UniProtKB/TrEMBL annotation:
Gene Ontology molecular function: hydrolase activity
Gene3D superfamilies found in the cross-reference section: 3.60.21.10
Record-given protein name: KID repeat family protein
Domain Calcineurin-like phosphoesterase: 35-289
Entry's transmembrane regions: none
Length: 359
């Protein structure tokens, strides 16, 4: 789906491979399929080649793609806040189409700088990130109208009766430490959370579908389901509540959380019993720099290799990566076949193609 003037800026060393993989992906498309492009953890810096973004532009200009999803860590760490802000602006300026959807990753706020000693002055706060990276989506997606800077939202594809829900797993309160206010009490680099506002928005708004034929899919940075996950680090505050809401939707039952208080306090009460069994296509995530398919209560949790061109340290089976070669990028063309209940993932760059059973 190309919405702006497009110019092919694909590096010559990638062009043949990209065309081959697009041709392969098109073979999986049909009347009962829906395709989108997906990648995660590009860790863009001011020195990046942007070959991945140019490839995403090319795919969207040469295929029937409904949207592109990036599961966070859009940015790596900037030396200064201004460099970080400028890099975010540069990234968005290079995207040639409207339906580029991303989520907040733990590197995206730049709070890693100074290891928490005086990181307030380096941090891209939510208002700034929303204005640079998300506000452009105002008339395309549905944000939480009471908390737009929460940066969670959904996008509907009515012709397929699919709702893509983009969750913010770094939805934390930015509270300055006393007494000098130079550092954050919690920083996005190391603290992962789903806020009470986001949990209730999911339960009462995002999962309120037009009818029982609609299906949902989820995208986030940090998977709230850590069991068996390669590369798992810190747990997600309220991650279990998030999972319980999704499970209750899928099973068509009531759910009442055990209310908590404090900076990550939450209370959720929702009843899906009148809606019947909910249909979940899959849950896509990033963060771990590892390709893995997990199953929880019949739902597939899917992550692919990191896009940033460095070999993953979290998984010994990760493919080698090198700038200036076809392994520089790691992108995916995802085709959901509703009749076969399968997801076909065609790799563009590093890694091997996947077929995932979602029945």
């Amino acid at each position: 789906m190309n919405n702006k003037t497009y110019e092919n800026k694909i590096p010559i060393y990638l062009q043949e491979m990209i065309d081959q993989q697009i041709a392969k992906a098109k073979e999986f498309q049909g009347q009962k399929t829906m395709s989108f492009s997906f990648f995660t953890d590009p860790h863009i810096t001011e020195a990046s080649t942007f070959a991945d973004i140019e490839t995403i532009n090319y795919i969207n200009n040469n295929m029937d793609i409904k949207f592109t999803a990036c599961c966070g860590d859009n940015l790596d760490n900037g030396i200064t806040k201004q460099i970080h802000l400028d890099t975010a602006k540069k990234l968005i300026s290079k995207i040639s189409f409207d339906n580029y959807f991303t989520v907040k990753g733990n590197h995206d706020d730049n709070s890693i700088i100074s290891n928490g000693v005086d990181n307030v002055k380096y941090t891209m706060i939510p208002k700034e990130q929303y204005n640079i990276m998300f506000k452009r989506l105002d008339r395309i997606v549905q944000f939480d109208e009471s908390n737009r800077e929460g940066m969670y939202y959904y996008y509907d594809i009515p012709e397929y009766k699919v709702r893509a829900i983009f969750l913010n797993s770094i939805d934390i309160p930015y509270i300055k430490n006393q007494p000098n206010n130079a550092a954050w009490k919690y920083d996005g680099q190391n603290t992962y959370a789903y806020s009470n506002a986001q949990l209730n928005w999911l339960a009462h708004i995002a999962l309120k579908l037009p009818d029982e034929q609609w299906k949902v899919m989820f995208f986030t940075h940090v998977n709230p389901f850590p069991e068996g996950m390669i590369g798992a680090d810190n747990l997600v505050y309220n991650g279990t509540v998030m999972l319980n809401i999704i499970d209750a939707f899928k099973m068509g039952v009531k759910y009442n959380s055990i209310a908590t208080t404090g900076d990550f306090g939450q209370s959720v009460s929702v009843d899906f019993s009148s809606k019947g069994i909910g249909k979940v296509i899959a849950f896509f995530y990033g963060h771990t720099h590892s390709e893995q398919v997990l199953t929880r209560n019949g739902i597939k949790y899917i992550s692919t290799w990191n896009d940033v061109p460095r070999k993953s340290l979290s998984n010994p089976n990760a493919p080698a990566r090198a700038i200036g070669t076809t392994s520089e990028i790691c992108l995916n063309i995802v085709t959901v076949n509703f009749d076969l209940s399968k997801i076909f993932i065609t790799k563009v760059g590093g890694g091997a193609d996947l077929v995932i059973d979602i029945s």
